[in-house]
Amino acid sequence: xxxxxxxxxxxxxxxxxxxxxxxxxxxxxxxxxxxxxxxxxxxxxxxxxxxxxxxxxxxxxxxxxxxxxxxxxxxxxxxxxxxxxxxxxxxxxxxxxxxxxxxxxxxxxxxxxxxxxxxxxxxxxxxxxxxxxxxxxxxxxxxxxx
Length: 146
Known about the structure:
Blueprint: E1 2-7, H1 19-22, H2 27-40, E2 44-49, H3 53-63, E3 69-73, H4 82-91, E4 95-99, E5 121-124, H5 129-143
């Protein structure tokens, strides 16, 4: 089983970007934790981060055929990136949307996600642990065909 782990804009600055909201954990540490847990679950993870929507779309188009599911933290693209959404729809894989912060306790514009309606679920507000939860839930879903 292979899962794509995709991170959008500004997530490369985790650990130094608004740590009161996003915490001190860097993206490389998060990716390493996800890959460690994936190894325990006997799952392969292909990770990618970009600040460019088109690059994220290219990654999805290039990698989704060999993947079983997608974990994505679209960052600010969550709220308006319809081309990214379309690429995820075209991938035709179960999607878990992850956000480090509770987007619903923040500014109003963060309350709308164009990704959530096409995802099997959304995990928000649990920091880096949300990625682990998404991984475990997608693996369990695949194993139980649900």
